[in-house]
Amino acid sequence: MMIQVDNLTKLFGPVLAVDRVSFQVDQGEVVGFLGPNGAGKTTTMRILTGYLPATSGLAKVAGFDVMTESLQVRRNIGYLPESVPLYPEMRVEEYVNFRAKLKGVPRGERTGRIEYCLERCRLKEVRRRLVGTLSKGYRQRVGLADAMVSDPPILILDEPTAGLDPFQIRETLALIKELGARRTVLLSTHILSEVESVCERVILIAGGRVRLSALLDDLEAEASILLEARGPADQVAEAVRGLDGVTTVARHGDGHGGGDGHGGGDGHGGDGGWVSLEVHTRDNVDLREAVGKAVAGRGWSLRRLERKRRRLEDAYFDVLRAQDPLKGDLPAPAPVPKDAIQAQPPAAVTSA
Q1: CA-CA distance, 69 to 61, in Å (whole number)?
Q2: In terms of CB atoms within 10 Å, which end of the chain has fewer, N or C?
Q3: CA-based Rg of the chain, rounded to a whole angstrom?
Q4: Quick one: pLDDT band at residue 317, thresholds 50, 70, 90?
Q5: Which of 19-25's residues contact partners 24+ apart within 8 Å by CB, and which partners?
Q6: Which of 259, 267, 265, 269 lies closest to 227 in space, CA to CA?
Q7: Domain 223-309 belongs to what architecture?
Q8: Are 72 and 62 in contact (CB under 8 A)?
Q9: Distance separating alpha carbons of residues 9 and 148, to the nearest angstrom
Q10: What pTM, to 2 d.p., does this model score?
Q11: pLDDT tens figures, 37-46
């Protein structure tokens, strides 16, 4: 394995930032490292890259201990921090060349690596510009070129698309996916759609602990049945709950039904008597036919019977609600079309 973390703990005085975190990333994996602000993601990444010492626990990168073999660790990683530290008085090409020398890129390979990084990070048009005159998006891409220039086997990227416009985000994600074909990538971002587009697995951290580690394919294989019927909420739920193979039935907060899950004063849902339920089944078996018959057989009208696959967003908010029940009251966002980014016109090359 390329990254191994066991019971990693970091204290800042009385503040427990990372609490016995354990996970692994294998060779060739592209893994999304997710969590809300203050969850401990950046602290964990800084420990893995040797920028911070751990209070306790074990962290190995490319087989080297980050505490006792930090030089070997740094030779095997490319790190893009959340806030990219750059020399504003240097020109872009000069800076990338400087970083290549520091990282020990052989002289005979240096020019080729610099040209490759400038090309893939879309920096050739600003190669003679002073770093200090660049926009945030361009500075972010200079940091990515820095991370790539030594052709390391492991990339640790903290918010790589921060400050980029939609067109640049799409290009950067395509580059990360290409790099992940022959490298190990640990990617931190708050934008879940980015993770779904480039990552194979996710690690979700909250409150300093790992709350979820799963393959995206496994998450998306989970499904539920969304049901809307006109009838007494408790009776509809009980009728569905009694079906063989149904594991749980819960009120679905999608705005179609009303009430608090127990129906209105007449025992019906609040939206003209309509009640919305989410039905989970054993082994994700599709029981829509049985559910429909159970509802219609009792004379209740049916206006929705839909199979809904679980998305990364659902898993993310399930974890956050478990940590803070108040987050369960947040309204669900409106769905975003899959081609939303493609629909954006390309920005001018000098904007970021």
Answers
A1: 10
A2: N
A3: 25
A4: confident
A5: 19/207, 19/208, 19/209, 20/57, 20/209, 21/57, 21/205, 21/208, 21/209, 21/210, 22/210, 23/203, 23/210, 23/213, 25/1, 25/184, 25/186
A6: 269
A7: 2-Layer Sandwich (3.30)
A8: yes
A9: 29
A10: 0.76
A11: 889 999 999 9
Q: Where are the domains of the chain?
A: 3-76+152-219, 223-309
CA distances (Å), 214 to each of 27, 103, 171, 217, 279, in order? 16, 34, 26, 8, 22
Q: In terms of C-beta density within 10 A (0-12 exposed, 13-18 middle, 19 or more buried), how is residue 282 classed?
A: exposed
Q: Which two tokens stand for residue 110?
A: 């240096």
**Main-chain dihedrals φ then ψ at residue 16, nearest 5 degrees:** -90, 100
Q: Which residues pair with 188 in a beta bridge?
A: 33, 158
Closest CA to 185 of 29, 10, 1, 64: 29
Task: Fill in the amino acid letter for 317.
Answer: F
Strands 301-309 and 274-281: unpaired
Superfamily in which the 3-76+152-219 domain is placed by CATH: P-loop containing nucleotide triphosphate hydrolases (3.40.50.300)
How far, in Å, CA of 122 to CA of 169, rounded? 12
Decide if 18 contacts 8 (C-beta within 8 A).
yes
Residue 275, both tokens: 């009640």
> What percentage of the chain carries pLDDT values higher than 70?
86
Predicted confidence at residue 326, as pLDDT, reads 56
Lookup: tokens for 181? 């074909």
Reference 249, options 224, 278, 228, 290; nearest CA is: 278
Structure token pair of residue 243: 């079906």
pLDDT band at 321 (very low <50, low <70, confident <90, very high): confident
